[in-house]
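Sample 3 of the quickstart, ligand phosphoric acid mono(formamide)ester:
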Amino acid sequence: MKSLINILDLSVEELDEMLRVADDIIDHPQKYSEVCHGKKLATLFYEPSTRTRLSFEAAMMELGGNVIGFSEASSSSAAKGESVADTVRVISCYADIAAMRHPKEGAPLVASMYATIPIINAGDGGHNHPTQTLADLCTIRRETGRLSNLTVGLCGDLKFGRTVHSLIAAMARYSGVRFVLISPDELRVPDYVKHDVLDRGGIEYIETTDLEQVMPQLDILYMTRVQRERFFNEEEYLRLKDRYILTPDKLTDAKESLRILHPLPRVNEISVAIDNDPRAVYFKQVLYGKYMRMALILKLLNIQV
Ligand code: CP
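Result:
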C-alpha cells in the first residue's frame, strides 16, 4: 500500500506513466468508466476546497466508484476532539483510499502512518499540494509538448503557496528547467525549498520583485493568490495582496508561446480580461487535474487497464 504525501514519492518514470494514463483516459473515457466498480474514495477535508475535493469525487465517479467523506472539520468528529490518527483508522474500515486536506503541515503524513489504505495529501497547510502538481505537469506537457528546457516563472505568494513548493520539487527533476521566482521580499520561496531542492540540485534560478522585466524570458507563468488564511497579520495581507495583478498590458513583451497557469482560486491576481487570451490555460488546468487524479487513484489502487 502506497500513499502520496509529497510529489517526490513518485519517480519521474511513475509520473511519465501517469501522464500517459491521463492521455489515454482523455482519448478513451469509456475504457475506464467501470474500472473502480465496488471501490470507495473517502474525502477528508478539514479546510475549504472547491477543485481538489470535487475533482477527486468526479474522478472516482468517472471510474465507476463511489465517494464518502466530509467537507469541513466541524461536521466530523474532529469537532469533538478526535485525532487524525483515530479518524483514519476508522475511515480505513469504510473506504479503499482517502484524500485528506488539512491546515496543519504533516497531517496527511501522520494519517498515512495509521491508515491501512492509501492516503493522498490534498494540501497540508503551507507545505505541499502534490495532486495540484499532477494537474500542473499535465497542463504544461500538453500545452508545450515537454517538461524539460523551460523557463518557469512563479509569481505571487511563494512563501505560503504550497502548490509552488510542490511544483518546484517536481520540475527540478527535468533537464534544462530554470526558475524565475517573482515575489515581494516578504513572500519569497522558503529557504528549505531553495537549499534542499534548488541549490542541492544545482538548478538555475533567480529571485526578483519585477514581473514585467522578466516577462520576455518566460515559457510558463504560474500566478498564485496571496494566501490570506496563512497570515498572522491582516494588515500585512492587505498591504501585499494586490502586489501582482496580471493585466493585458503586462503581456506586451511576453512570448506568443507563453502559457499562463494558476492553481485557482483566483482573487485579484489575474484580470478577467486575460481569460480569453489563448495563452491563459488555468481552466484547462482544472480539467487536466481531474484526469491526473483518475490516473493517481488507479495507480494507488493497483488497477491496470
Ligand atoms: N487549487 C486548489 O487546491 O483549489 P481548491 O482549494 O479549490 O481545492
